[in-house]
Amino acid sequence: MSGLAGKTVVLYLENMYNDLEFWYPRLRLVEAGAKVLVAAPEAGREYKSKFGMPAVADAAFRDLDPASLHGVIIPGGYAPDLMRRHQAALTFVRAMFDAGKLVAAICHAGWVPVSAGILRGKRCTSFFSIKDDMVNAGALWEDAAAVVDGCLVSSRTPDDLPQFMTACLGVLRG
User: Fold this and answer.
1) Tens digits of per-residue pLDDT, 69-119?
2) What range defines the domain where residue 52 resides?
3) Which of the residues are catalytic?
4) Is residue 141 assigned to a domain?
5) Considering the domain boundaries, does residue 1 fall inside one?
């Protein structure tokens, strides 16, 4: 795959991230020619997955510049509940959404767009246990492997990663 040369996509990171939902998008983006910028509460810090796999943040949420970036992908696991406690993470997601740039969430990552206030009237999906949170935030929830509504891409579980990343790559390519 190619076609994303010159594009930089942010991949969110926090402790207890879902291994597959972080590493699979990272590798697919690199294969497609994109630069991946891993962002977390603190740059240079190591964060561990649900199963203990470490990943290091390149940047802090507060240092992200929406004007110079092309999309953001938010992995699930328990990490989104921690991510949404950082106003800078939510402000960045809102800015990317308002600019019409990719905002993608899989599984429990739907909590971040909920807290960023960007789901009202938007079609999306998530892990079934946060459906009520999404609907209460105004989302039009669907049970589908991947849902695309403009620049917003969402999926349910790690099993949906192929469809999720196909949709993400499609939005990034325009």
Assistant:
1) 999 999 999 999 999 999 999 999 999 999 999 999 999 999 999 999 999
2) 8-173
3) 108
4) yes
5) no
